[in-house]
């Protein structure tokens, strides 16, 4: 794809270089090195090039040599930035070292010798820029400003994965299309065995996905397909195994392993005799053999099943032999309505009469594409002057063809009208694969590492500046919200980013990208063994690489490979080894002096090398996940530029003098050690902390004055605070209790706090700041193991409280008020907490091990008609509670522990049509599920220590539960020789867990015969079990785990086990957590 370099993009780059050259740090340094003349020459040459960039931006569409010249200029800017970064890093270190010498003359001698290599490189850079300046004259580039840049934004603040969610209020002109689609979906299949496929075909940005969403969410469709629907985003990555797993998960089924035969067999069984709807969004692959393989499991559903695909390629529709739904452009009226919605928002069109005629002419140029109309409307939302709209209407950008890139002119125009700093930040996003979901904070830190947020003098921090830019890009739909607070880019927007980034960014997602990588600066890599070796091997010319993101690679990156990488790629600003199975980090990491971002999350390090403390420029260090680190290097506090530090919770001690890291904005974990370790006072100057922090070891704080010095009250950006004491009470006397109370009193947080947890607190009362109205913004409060406290904070003082968790506070006496905001309530081992009617908005209620004399569920939850999760432990109840749950049909998860009042539950389970999960524990008198049995849509069932109920298991009707995927059973199995009985379990079962079945002796082969979907069998602590089925286990079995079963352990282990041959066909076998082999 050809690159489209923009003048404003480079102008931003130039401005950063200029600002650095005139800064006091650089001018002093160059003056001492006698390089003033060279630097002035450099600035003059840069300025002469900068003046013609806007003219070059326009002419690149017509003159290929201009496009090449712009690429060369961009390459030169990267080289200049690299040189200045090296000087900025090494000069202060050299100066500090020189100042430690005995005389002043040594300082200047040291600097003089130090500057020589940089002098030659500066002159080489000037020579290169001189050549580019001469070429601009030959290309007849003129000094002029592109008018389009005045429209858009102020310079000061003022894996595109689609989901099925949609906001129908802002959609125009698709009602007829929607109704026609619904009519097709509700029709029968006409006797054909093949599932009909409907292809929605149209140009990019036409609204194919939007139409599919409208149909998918229609109530008639929901009722017709009875919730058996799935939505899968495909894009240009067509992997049959990956897609099959994604489809299984979207239907709500488990999907493990990589064996396509097993996965498709499972999918076929799940869909047999069911009426289903599957949407495959954004299809690019038109290879018939791929589709034939993918669609094999889909011909066993009931009549009326349908598959929808969305694609730009009619060839895909032909290959699928599908019904073609050719989506057309919006008409002018609908386009205008859509434009007005986004351009004017809360304003009235009649207040701007002069803009209507201009606006309609602009909309006409969008060609009826909804995405183009929406994007342009959002672009103009900020401006309401005639001349600004006319400049958009009259710009030459509409005329330029871009056949190689197929970039929509409206998207290109939106990009060109961004301020220069926004352009650079957007172009960096070309590194993301199509379909990648990114986090707001993650991307901002990427931008910081690349130096894209420098020069934000009007802002308090680079993070805030980055957040402004992110919001601006979101406002013009370059970023779109996905699920779980993440974002993605539409495929067309991703294409645009790739176009403007060109040869400087590469994505390698599943396959090696051939070609010259000499100028490549950013690489995203998610590859297999041989491809990663190509990238990291010494023959690969990527020495100018600035960003290297390796994600979930399957190879072990050895120390030798790391050493070579760290010695060659010294230009790296950003490095991610996230989820790469690393157990060691090579010492040579210290060579990456310019590194600003390092992600080592989800690896298994036990230690980090001391050389990591040489990464003077490091801003972000991520160590969360599976790391086994217990401590950090001793000189860690030298990383004074750290702003974001995420630590593993297995850490045992903080690095010495961590309080020196006053620039930290993220610190998720802090340990208060005993006398000689890090104290609470280390937090004193960290007032820039944002987000969440967990502070443990607060029992080691002896003096309330030390606690006050932590200065939590001034940490106004913190939103979540976890305060963990040590919980020791056996040694506590009255003075010690009072001391703990005074310590917590001194740890008063800022009033902006939203979530607070106090755990293992040894005091006998809560602090005044919690008892009064000092935390008006609190949304979540958890009090855990506060065993000496008797008074609950006044919840009326917390008007925004939505979630309340009180655990192991036996002396706490209070009545839970009927607050309107409460949606989640957990009460565990709190006998004196009374529940007298709860919020009508309550969705989750957990009541565990409370000793109540009387309890009436219908009285306490009388208003809770939207309750979704209910977890009751009634073991401590003196009398039989009233549990009439018949009116709570919204329940999805139900857990009951300790029912001992009758032989059946006091409600009919089969009436809970929305129930998906049922767990029953420790119910010795329970004999049956009651009249009607189990609900038909149950997916997860766990029965533990309910001997009489398990004794009647053949009466449960499990075989008829076609939705059941997971069954967990734990019982002694008194008088039971073998399990499971024939036709006991449903054929849809995916996972079977046998836990602590102490008297079970034999697994019944006939009980497994029909379990063709069974994927995982887990057997734990069954000491009497003598054998697995003599005839073997089902062929669908891919995962067998055996723990603490001494008899079968010896029989079935790989080395010397007499019965190993009966299970060797299973791909993954673990015995006592030791993997027996990798199935080939």
From TrEMBL:
Keyword hit for Nucleotide-binding: yes
Domain NB-ARC: 177-347
Any one of the GO BP annotations: defense response
Pfam families: LRR_R13L1-DRL21, NB-ARC, Rx_N, WHD_DRP
Residues annotated as domain R13L1/DRL21-like LRR repeat region: 680-809
Domain Disease resistance protein winged helix: 431-497
Highest rank taxon of the organism: Eukaryota
The keyword Nucleotide-binding belongs to this UniProt entry's keyword annotation: yes
Keywords: ATP-binding, Leucine-rich repeat, Nucleotide-binding, Plant defense, Repeat
Record-level Gene Ontology MF annotations: ADP binding; ATP binding
InterPro entries linked: Apaf_helical, LRR_dom_sf, LRR_R13L1-DRL21, NB-ARC, P-loop_NTPase, Rx_N, WH-like_DNA-bd_sf, WHD_DRP
Disease resistance N-terminal domain location: 9-100
PANTHER family: DISEASE RESISTANCE RPP13-LIKE PROTEIN 1 (PTHR36766:SF51), PLANT BROAD-SPECTRUM MILDEW RESISTANCE PROTEIN RPW8 (PTHR36766)
Protein name: LRR and NB-ARC domain disease resistance protein
Lineage, highest ranks first: Eukaryota, Viridiplantae, Streptophyta, Embryophyta, Tracheophyta
